[in-house]
Structure formats: structure tokens, C-alpha cells
């Protein structure tokens, strides 16, 4: 296990198309996070899973965005009817935690989405 | 939610000098404060973190200080080297919730 893996690394899509990204966390990590990062900005929180349960969603996550983590392992993030404003780096992170105790995130390399 | 502000947005230092980056947070319940280094085109990588029960933590040339009363924390890099050049992000978290990130500081170490 070499860390958090994200696929694809790059995605170019036409406006209005649907896209899906995958994240494979570190195997023993029970928590998984999706963030979005635009140029010159810090990562912005999108959503968070503990095991298979989606515990929190940001207001940034419009109804065009949906995320799943069906078996508590890998996760997918789908964007429907993409818009140019969706162009960004989508980062996945995972961590190991229990209750309020958490051992810190490990980020994946991200999926860079370009909507043309 | 939490609001994290970070200053400065850019910082240039001569090799061997020290660099200091400062962050403030809004939620007094936040209890975990990591710092990430992100090189161009790469993932953010955790370089040091501090929990609210500690005022200072040091790891070789990197140190972080936390002032809970004032709700601010700082990253200190001593004896800077060109490979320290990157964007640095601070973050804050309350309990098991998600991290809130600052807007980043682009550090340039001039050889």
C-alpha cells in the first residue's frame, strides 16, 4: 500500500457531460475526505465519510455532485452536467480515527478536471 | 464553520534565514492544527502538526507554536534551504470534523 490513489490524474470534459473520479484510501484508514482546490487557493472541503457513512457535506456540494463509499473502502465522486466553474483539482484524503481522535490526513495526488 | 486566515500570501527569504508564517482561526473549539507543504503539481504533504494541549512542537528545522487564547498559530522554518520553496497551508479542525485550510503562503528561498 503506497498511499492514497486517485484515478484519473487528469480529465478533460465538455460542458454538460458527467464525470466520475475514484479514490482508493490507505487500507487501514476508516475516514475519507474529498476536497476541491483551485489555483492559488487552499483545499476546500466537499464531503467526508467514516467507513461507508457520509457524515458531512459542504454547501459547496451542489445537487450535481454526489459521492459514495459503498463498502467503506474506495470512494467515487460524480459530477453531473459539468460546468466550467467545476474546473479544479479534486483531492481525496484519508485518515485513521476514532471519535474525536484522528491521526492526520494523507492526501492523494488529485484529479485535475478541466471543463471546456 | 471554522474560518482560517493565513499571512503572508507570499514570502521571500535568503537561504539560511528564517521564515515565519502565521494563521488565525475563529472557532475556539478547534483542537488540531496541521501544516502542509505543497510543491507545484504535487499533493499537499503534512510537515508538522500540533494539538491544543501543547504550546509548541519542533521537528528539526521546523517548529509550530500555538496560542489558544489569541487563536493563532505559526510555522517557523529556520536555516531555510532552496528545497523549502513551496506553498505552505495551515489548517484547523474541531474534533473529528473536516480540516479548514488557509489560503496558502508561497515561500521562495533565494540561493
Overall pLDDT confidence of chain B: 93
- Which residues of chain A sit in consecutive blocks of at least 5 with pLDDT less than 50? none
Measured distance between first and last alpha carbons of chain B = 40 Å
Total of helices of chain B = 0
The oligomeric state is: heterodimer
Report the sheet-strand fraction of chain B: over 45%
Task: Describe the fold and architecture.
The complex is a heterodimer of chains A (116) and B (111). Chain A has strands at 5-7, 10-13, 19-24, 31-37, 44-50, 53-57, 65-68, 75-79, 88-95, 97-98, 101-102, 106-107, 111-115. The N and C termini of chain A lie far apart (35 Å). In chain A, a hairpin with a 6-residue loop joins strand 4 (31-37) and strand 5. In chain A, strands 2, 4, 5, 6, 9, 12 and 13 form a 7-stranded mixed β-sheet that branches. Chain A is globular and about 40 Å long. Helix content of chain A is 0%, strand content 52%. With 111 residues, chain B is an all-beta fold. Chain B is 0% helix and 55% strand. Chain B contains no helices and 11 strands. In chain B, the strands form 2 sheets. In chain B, strands 2, 4, 5, 9, 10 and 11 form a 6-stranded mixed β-sheet that branches. Chain B starts with a strand and ends with a strand. The A-B interface holds A 31, 33, 40-45, 48, 50, 56, 91, 97, 99-102, 104-110 and B 4, 6, 31-32, 34, 36, 42-46, 49, 89, 91, 93, 95-104.
Amino acid at each position: 500500500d503506497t498511499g492514497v490513489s486517485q484515478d484519473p490524474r487528469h480529465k478533460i470534459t465538455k460542458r454538460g457531460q458527467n464525470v466520475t473520479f475514484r479514490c482508493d484510501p490507505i487500507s487501514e484508514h476508516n475516514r475519507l475526505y474529498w476536497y476541491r482546490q483551485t489555483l492559488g487557493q487552499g483545499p476546500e472541503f466537499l464531503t467526508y465519510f467514516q467507513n461507508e457513512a457520509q457524515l458531512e457535506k459542504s454547501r459547496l456540494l451542489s445537487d450535481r455532485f454526489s459521492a459514495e463509499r459503498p463498502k467503506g473502502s474506495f470512494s467515487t465522486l460524480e459530477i453531473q452536467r459539468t460546468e466550467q466553474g467545476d474546473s479544479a483539482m479534486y483531492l481525496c484524503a484519508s485518515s485513521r480515527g476514532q471519535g474525536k481522535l484522528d491521526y492526520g490526513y494523507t492526501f492523494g495526488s488529485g484529479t485535475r478536471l478541466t471543463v471546456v | 464553520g471554522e474560518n482560517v486566515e493565513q499571512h503572508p500570501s507570499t514570502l521571500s527569504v535568503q537561504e539560511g534565514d528564517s521564515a515565519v508564517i502565521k494563521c488565525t482561526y475563529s472557532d475556539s473549539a478547534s483542537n488540531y492544527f496541521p501544516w502542509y507543504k505543497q510543491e507545484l503539481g504535487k499533493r499537499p504533504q503534512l510537515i508538522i502538526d500540533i494539538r491544543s494541549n501543547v504550546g509548541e512542537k519542533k521537528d528539526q528545522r521546523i517548529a509550530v507554536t500555538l496560542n489558544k487564547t489569541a487563536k493563532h498559530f505559526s510555522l517557523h522554518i529556520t536555516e531555510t534551504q532552496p528545497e523549502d520553496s513551496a506553498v505552505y497551508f495551515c489548517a484547523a479542525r474541531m474534533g473529528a470534523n473536516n480540516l479548514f485550510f488557509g489560503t496558502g503562503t508561497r515561500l521562495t528561498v533565494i540561493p
